[in-house]
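Tokens as discussed.
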């Protein structure tokens, strides 16, 4: 069981928050976390690079000089990749780097990443985070009061708040994300996480719903397998008769 301190905007403790990391993820799979992070990084690649092969560069395909008798090394086209101005031997072509990840695996990996940050005591809780208008100065003061300055930080709110986003987007090393947009990469990349109490409540609710959904799917799958085995046994019995 982890006990997190709840702070106010001035950095003073106003309460505690009890949470068990196993509520988010009963176990941590480094293999799944690695797979999820690599998948998100691969999907961020544009893959729009291109270089010229010997078919794309300018120049004649005529043999430069005769094969023998000149004393030079044998040579063919000016477009050869071994000559200056020639094409690339293994030219790069646009490609798609996107990789698929099952929805359930992505959800579990996100919860594992949050449980890892919680276990490592990298989550800072604040009771609420709202502003009347966008103000970077006040946001920077809150981050400094909570001791989260000087390192990369992810600010997580329960829902998308445009005022909080505009207040923090110009601070170096600070990123903003609502609970619905969290994934394993965004959670594991920063050093610290600054969350509102409402955001952590929403994460716990989503984790509980995910666990219940997983149990229901397993039960349905087990029922389907039992029905299939029963049908197979019935057919075998009918053939014997």
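Sequence:
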């Amino acid at each position: 069981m982890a006990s997190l301190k709840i702070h106010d905007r001035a950095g003073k403790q106003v309460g505690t928050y009890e949470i068990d990391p196993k509520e988010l993820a009963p176990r941590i799979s480094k293999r799944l976390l690695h797979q999820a992070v690599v998948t998100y990084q691969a999907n961020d690649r544009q893959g729009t690079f291109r270089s010229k092969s010997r078919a794309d560069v300018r120049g004649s395909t005529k043999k430069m000089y005769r094969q023998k008798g000149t004393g030079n090394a044998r040579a063919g086209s000016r477009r050869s990749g071994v000559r200056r101005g020639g094409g690339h031997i293994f030219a790069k072509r646009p490609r798609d780097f996107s990789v698929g990840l099952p929805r359930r695996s992505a959800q579990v990996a996100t919860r594992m990443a949050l449980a890892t940050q919680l276990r490592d005591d990298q989550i800072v809780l604040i009771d609420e985070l709202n502003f009347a208008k966008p103000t970077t100065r006040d946001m920077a003061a809150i981050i400094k009061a909570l001791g989260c300055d000087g390192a990369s930080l992810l600010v997580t709110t329960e829902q998308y708040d445009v005022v909080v986003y505009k207040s923090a987007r110009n601070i170096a090393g600070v990123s903003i994300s609502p609970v619905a947009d969290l994934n394993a990469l965004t959670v594991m990349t920063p050093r610290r996480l600054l969350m509102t109490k409402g955001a952590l409540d929403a994460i716990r609710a989503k984790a509980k719903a995910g666990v219940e959904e997983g149990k229901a799917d397993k039960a349905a799958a087990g029922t389907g397998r039992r029905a299939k085995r029963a049908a197979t046994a019935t057919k075998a019995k009918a053939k014997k008769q």
